[in-house]
Amino acid sequence: xxxxxxxxxxxxxxxxxxxxxxxxxLLLLIYRVGSYIVLPGLDPxxxxxxxxxxxxxxxxxxxxxxxxxxxxxxxxxxxxMPYISASIFMQLMTILVPQISKIQKEGESGQxxxxxxxxxxxxxxxxxQAAAYIGFLKxxxxxxxxxxxxxxxxxxxxxxxxxxxLFVMWLGEKITxxxxxxxxxxIIMVGILARLPQNFMQEFTAKQTRGGGGLLIFLVEIxxxxxxxxxxxxxxxxxxxxxxxxxxxxxxxxxxxxxxQFLPLKVNAAGxxxxxxxxxxxxxxxxxxxxxxxxxSWALYFTxxxxxxxxxxYSIMVIGFTFLYTALIFNPRQVSDDLKRSxxxxxxxxxxxxxxxxxxxxxxxxTLPGAILLAVVGILPGIAQLLxxxxxxxxxxxxxxxxxxxxxxxxxxxxxxxQLLMRQYDGLMSSGRIQGRQSVAPGVTGNM
Length: 448
Prior knowledge:
Elements: H1 2-13, H2 15-34, H3 48-53, H4 57-65, H5 81-96, H6 98-104, H7 108-140, H8 150-178, H9 183-194, H10 196-208, H11 212-237, E1 239-246, E2 249-251, E3 254-256, E4 260-266, H12 273-288, H13 297-300, H14 308-329, H15 332-341, E5 344-345, H16 353-386, H17 391-394, H18 399-422
Antiparallel strand pairs: 1-4, 1-5, 2-3
Transmembrane segments: 21-39, 75-97, 117-137, 152-172, 179-196, 216-236, 267-288, 308-330, 366-387, 393-413
Subcellular location: Cell membrane; Membrane
Keywords: Cell membrane, Membrane, Protein transport, Translocation, Transmembrane, Transmembrane helix, Transport
């Protein structure tokens, strides 16, 4: 406890770090306040059907990402998700389209162009999703719309939802520039965490009605929840260390190289992206149906996490996207060339193509178990719900929600620890260093 108090004091004594933390908390407070501002023209007391319709399935997941703003018909109902969709699309374009890739390699000016295109694309995506959201509001909450405001509702809602998404995007960029960094990831994490206390109490109340046996089941669920978090930490930070030797070089009277180091290859190099890609594709039928899933049996296969077909299709997609995205972001030949230029080599492996093949083989071997574990994490909420966990609390047993929470918390702690070590303070942990992780959308969301 004394160590923890001393660490807090050290953090508070660093003016730069203290200002970053306070600035981040201020912007997050603004975001949370905006999540409770209802769209004009709606009666908040008549939105019970909207809350019930967005409890389960993919709508429940979307509502979790935006901190409950979707179910409240808030001006931030779509949150930062359109920006993430646009960022993912632009990132794929930089990999698949040579012209855009060339612009990205122009340095800061090229990155500014891509960021500006991402913002324009965000407006288009938000407008499209806002139109679908309006159809969902009108169909499930006809009594909530005030008759006098009905002629203006469509235009005002599209404008406000688009403006709200752009404002949240701006908040994320400011957190990245002047706050703790990774603003978009932190905003998503806060939205997810905002629902945890309420869902925790709902689960406790549901189990308490069963008597003593229910309380024991609740304790078992908490133990399983902690075990899943520990497993995710291992998955996020797990690496395969490939030994690398560097040849000795003598320049004048000084010797360089000759050290033995390790090349860390991440078990989950793709991060959370395969789950996001898979969920985005599974979510498409819901968007085309105007967020409606009732009465359309074929759509239930893509919207209900407890459905066996959903689990199988979802797992296959996660595994496939894990290999695809890892192949896009990790280039064994580039790693081999970098080792060759720095006079490094893997013991027992010839430089050049043999090194490339060796690194590629290792990545394939460690990516497979990583992909399978990622798929298991993705379907854990559905399994938990089948075992009797309430819908809200089951979303925290895995999937994108918990994976983003664990990854963002680790990355934020790693940045705070770096600030402490730079000023010769002790780190946050007595042993070892906290490893960072990739952003929600690596390479593109670094500015979020």
